[in-house]
Amino acid sequence: MGPIWFLVLYLLLATPPSVLAELQQETELRHKQPGVRLEIHHARGHGSSSFNATHLLSLSDLLSRDEERVMALQSRLVISKDTGGTTSASSSKEDPAGQKSINIPLKAGLSIGSGNYLLKIGLGTPAKYYTLLLDTGSSFSWLQCQPCSVYCHNQVDPLFDPSQSKTYKKLTCGTSQCSLLTEATLNKPFCSRSANTCIYTASYGDSSYSIGYLSEDLLTLAPSQTLPRFVYGCGQDNQGLFGKTDGIVGLARDQLSLLGQLSSKYGYAFSYCLPEAFTSSTGVGFLSFGESSLAASPAYKFTPMLTDSKNPSLYFLRLAAITVAGVPLRVGAVQYRVSTIIDSGTVITRLPAAVYTALQQAFVSIMSKRYAQAPAYSILDTCFKGSLKSLSVVPQIQFIFQGGADLTLKASNILIEADKGISCLAFAGSSQIAIIGNHQQQTFSVAYDVTRSRIGFAAGGCH
């Protein structure tokens, strides 16, 4: 018997047969749901290895995955034609006294096969650190765990081993945290009858998913900043488009999200700056928790944070106008009134069809006077011959939000290099919703002040 198959046998035997059977049964049940695809894989090794980002994740693959995510977000919402489906959000929670703040470095995930952003957190006692995806569109956090009873994908760090943590605990079916899973994951929890263990399912619109044990452990954000009873998922069957990351950190508005669990200590507020991903692989941004961290940038301009009753965990705002080279697009105000999400996990900004068409036409009318157009690339239909560096004159695009907040985009936020010598407008049209993606957010400080129901933007955030 070869070493790989011996490892598989060991992992299967490490889980009690009754619990393993229930996990497999839950996996099969989840796969019968619409939009979830079952795939059979051979076992793979885990841990660090050399990695070719372009081999694992091409821009074409990234854009395809991005489109699937947009479709998933769209399916979670029912759009109101009259109001855009949004109303002002509110919070009844009081700011905790003596608030602190904490900063965590963020890096682009292209080097390990993801178009999203990465952070390191410590888990367990003693703490060991893991590389997770930041996702404002998710409410639940999870990472891959030994014994990986069904399947774990390759990841950059050694797998988390709950048996090596003195503070690890599986949560039972009757706990309040188990009852919160339906809201946090949009899937009902499953109860292991033999072990009285709560089993979660976190599923995503691109057919990715994680299934495992609802767990509790010590979370370490910095040596002096810990959360003693962090609730998360210990994944036993994890398949899909996660690159070589160890799991996901959910930052949506929900009790089980990392934001919700840190709120008693840091308040209902966080901010981040996403470093440039395509023009630099070494840039570092930040994720900061705490309302006091919002005061670090006095240049913030705020727009109301909105909510949609169909999915109140997501972050909505109202786009009021767009200008190209200082000239407003020739579209009526009603064309902007669709549900608009700001999302760290979507790469390319989606705009209402009429708004995108007007933006594309205004941009081409200026660019085509200096640069030759190129064929479309995947979902990007407006491309030009030239690298990002060689296209030296790019008209400024500005997003103007309700209340006067704005994003004034530079060339690296506007264009994306699709191929050698080809650069494309990094926007696409959408039939039902709008999404402010992470490519347009790069290098800006973005503040999420949930307590005061507002979202802020400030230029020059990554240093």
Question: What characteristics describe this protein?
Answer:
463 residues, alpha+beta, six-stranded mixed β-barrel, four-stranded antiparallel sheet, 11 helices, 31% strand, disordered N terminus
Walk me through what this model shows.
The chain has 463 residues and is α+β, with helices and mostly antiparallel strands. The chain has eleven helices and 29 strands. It has helices at 3-14, 17-31, 53-56, 59-75, 176-179, 181-185, 258-266, 291-294, 353-367, 411-414, 438-441; strands at 87-88, 102-108, 117-123, 128-135, 142-144, 169-170, 190-192, 197-203, 209-222, 225-239, 247-250, 269-273, 285-289, 301-304, 306-307, 319-324, 327-328, 340-342, 349-352, 373-374, 383-385, 397-401, 406-409, 415-419, 422-425, 427-430, 434-436, 445-449, 454-458. A six-stranded mixed β-barrel has the order 3-4-11-5-10-9. The chain has a four-stranded antiparallel beta sheet with strand order 17-16-22-23. It has a four-stranded antiparallel beta sheet with strand order 20-21-25-24. Strand 8 (197-203) and strand 9 (209-222) form a beta hairpin. The longest helix has 17 residues, at 59-75. It is globular and about 70 Å long. The N and C termini lie far apart (52 Å). 48% of the residues are buried. Mean pLDDT is 84; it is low at 1-15, 30-56, 79-85 and 87-98.
